[in-house]
Amino acid sequence: MSCLRGKSLTDISNALDKKSFTFAPSVDGTFLRSDPEVMITDLAKDDNSTKELEFLNVDLMLGLNNMEGGAHVALLWAERLNTTYNEFNVSRADIRNIVVPIAIKRTFGSNISQAITQTVNFQYNDVTGTDDPQRLRQRVVDLFTDIDVAAPLVRTGNVHELLGQGSTYLYQFSEPLNLTQTPVWLSGANRADDVHFLFGFSERGLQFVNHVTGFTPTVEQRVLSTRLIKMISKFARTGYV
């Protein structure tokens, strides 16, 4: 800590890896002694009773929205591709030459083989050659949904299920909020759209959302919120759903 405190803001900023997302975990050797997946797997193999290993033996519920990657379209890619969030006109060439290479570099660094880049492009580009705008938009959303949320959650769930004693659940939420600023082409639950459902559309929260976006939940959405809360509450009490 004394070394860190002695550095200037410029030194610290220059030392940061600008190729990584700012919300990625940092392996500092103390709080995270190594990669979390490797650390937990090794601990389970050694059968040690440690704080880290306790994670494997608690009941775990993981959840994600089906359009988590929509936030990236708004925050990064619309401007980078010289389009707007509402239109988001993206081509196959954009995905192949810009989106996929930058996504891989920011996630894994520079030392990635061309074969991996080509494989990711094949998976997340429209190889049919139809240039359907809706399909291409969805491919970009799918890519960042998987990078940011889906892949890490599935890996975490697999480790917990295979090596632990607790129950493991993974759910996907897809009910859209239909906010006024949500583009018409984004059909599903964007990043954090589930929050209001999880907290039962509190009056305070609704006042803010209605003022900003004009949103009012439907009867069906309130029913879904109640069911979601009951499911999570039952899991918290029993470890099952």
Automatic annotation (TrEMBL):
Supply the InterPro entries for this chain. Answer: AB_hydrolase_fold (IPR029058), CarbesteraseB (IPR002018), Neuroligin/BSAL (IPR051093)
For the Carboxylesterase type B domain, which residue ranges apply? 1-239
The entry sums up its family as follows: Belongs to the type-B carboxylesterase/lipase family.
What PANTHER family does this protein's entry cite? Answer: NEUROLIGIN (PTHR43903)
The name this protein goes by in its record:
Carboxylesterase type B domain-containing protein
List the source organism.
Answer: Dreissena polymorpha (Zebra mussel)
Q: What is the lineage of its organism?
A: Eukaryota, Metazoa, Spiralia, Lophotrochozoa, Mollusca
